[in-house]
Amino acid sequence: MTTATHPLKVIQDYPVIPVYYHDDADTCLEVLKASYAGGIRVFEFTNRGEKAPANFKVLIDYRNEHLPELKLGIGTIKTVAQAEAYINLGADFIVSPIVRADLASITKAKQVFWIPGCMTPTEINLAEELGAELVKLFPGDTLGPGFLKAIKPLFPNLKFMPTGGVDVNKENIDTWLNAGVTSLGFGSKLFQQPENAKDYSWLTERCELLISLVKKK
């Protein structure tokens, strides 16, 4: 695989996607490295703090030098200005919690993969009309697998990724997979650190486990 591979192809091949933010750049880097060691090849950093741009650049620089197989994107993007800033930093994909035509336009113009967040059939339909191929179902724990099962037949050409409250246990993962998701975004539940942990080997092991659970389907 090379960095020229389309993000959607990598997402389909490696459907476990960590969604993460921390103010400390070194912590971000350790989390990224541990996730990669566990088999992660798509990682979503989030634009949720004032240090997000600087920390994202640290991750991008490290990725470019050491992790050529990794697709590194940015989430929580709500404006064109934010999208442009991170595209200029080298983001492989842009994830939004909302659907906006101007975000669809700027990512298309810059040839950067866009994943809009949706909560209703109307929003999903708008995302599809704007050219989205993969839709983020957010918040995933509020909508639930039953929602996806109900609406998926209406959008046979779209792929779906729940984010927000997706649990790290086999039962929850199986329920989402059976509902027809293409990938799963894992937030805080993935990063709950065990007591007395001295390094991030627990995160590597957890990522390996999640990948094994998802790829069994």
The number of distinct helices, counting runs of at least 4 residues, comes to 9
Amount of helix: 40-55%
Number of strands: 9
Whole-number count of domains:
1
Strand order of the largest sheet: 3-2-1-9
Give the integer mean of the pLDDT values: 95
What order do the SSEs take from the amino end to the carboxyl end, as H and E? HEHEHEHEHEEHEHEHEH
Distance between the termini: 23 Å
The CATH topology name reads TIM Barrel
Strand content: 15-25%
**CATH homologous superfamily heading:** Aldolase class I
CATH architecture: Alpha-Beta Barrel
User: Biggest β-sheet: count, sense, barrel?
Assistant: 4 strands, parallel
Low-confidence stretches: none
The 3D shape can be described as: globular
- CATH class identity: Alpha Beta
Radius of gyration: 16 Å
Q: In terms of structural class, how would the helical and strand content be classed?
A: alpha/beta
Jot down its keywords.
TIM Barrel, four-stranded parallel beta sheet, globular, three-stranded parallel beta sheet, alpha/beta
Put the structure in a nutshell.
The chain is α/β, with parallel strands linked by helices. The protein is 47% helix and 16% strand. It has one domain (7-215): TIM Barrel (Alpha-Beta Barrel), CATH 3.20.20.
Structure description:
This protein is of the alpha/beta class. The chain has a single domain (7-215), classed as Aldolase class I (TIM Barrel), CATH 3.20.20.70. It has 9 helices and 9 strands. A 4-stranded parallel beta sheet has the order 3-2-1-9. The protein has a 3-stranded parallel beta sheet with strand order 6-7-8, with helices on one face. Strands 4-5 form a two-stranded parallel sheet. α2 runs parallel beside α3 (52-66). The longest helix has 15 residues, at 52-66. It is globular, with a radius of gyration of 16 Å. 40% of the residues are buried.
